[in-house]
Amino acid sequence: MANNPTFSDIEVGAEIPALSRGPISRTDLALFAGASGDHNPIHLDDAEAKAGGLPGVIVHGMLMMAVLGQSLSGWVAQSRVRAFSNRFAAMAAPGDTITCSGKVTAKRQEGGENLVDLEIIAQNQKGDVLLKGDATVALDA
């Protein structure tokens, strides 16, 4: 459930609440494969992943991105998200915990909306950055 901060209460440099998911299990990967239609064997079969040069099965990048998006929609209502993008920086493996966080980088008014820009990241339990991105949300005054 979103906590819906207001534009006047948010300052540049403020952090949004962190969100952690995991440890990611092989069941999570199988369920995500079914829900997304992404049955690439590098996410499901160690032998296939190793044949492709990986150390073993890896977590779907889009699953990590979904957790990052969930961290935003836990802070503000999903309808308030105006932009959300990221780049994949590293792979996660089964057993990893994904923790997402963000920091306010700018506040502005544009098109009749109070907009807040964020830098957002997802990291594993070792602190490795898995995803790094940006988001913009609209807040009430």
Q: How is this structure best described in words?
A:
- This protein has helices at residues 26-36, 46-51, 61-75; strands at residues 15-21, 81-88, 98-110, 113-123, 129-139.
- It is elongated and about 55 Å long.
- The chain has a five-stranded antiparallel sheet, covered by helices on one side.
- It has a single domain (7-139), classed as Thiol Ester Dehydrase, Chain A.
- The chain has 141 residues and is an alpha+beta fold.
- A hairpin with a 2-residue loop joins strand 3 (98-110) and strand 4 (113-123).
- The mean pLDDT is 96.
List the helices and strands and how they pair.
Layout: E1 15-21, H1 26-36, H2 46-51, H3 61-75, E2 81-88, E3 98-110, E4 113-123, E5 129-139
Antiparallel strand pairs: 1-3, 2-5, 3-4, 4-5
How many domains make up the coordinates?
A: 1
CATH architecture: Roll
> What's the multimeric state?
single chain
Helix content: 10-25%
Q: Termini separation (Å)?
A: 20 Å
- Spatially, the strands of the biggest sheet line up as 1-3-4-5-2
CATH superfamily: Hotdog Thioesterase
> What's the pLDDT, averaged over the residues?
96
The DSSP helix count reads: 3
* CATH fold call: Thiol Ester Dehydrase, Chain A
Structural class: alpha+beta
Order of helices and strands, N to C? EHHHEEEE
Please mark out the parts with pLDDT under 50 across 5 or more consecutive residues, or reply none: none
Major sheet attributes: 5 strands, antiparallel
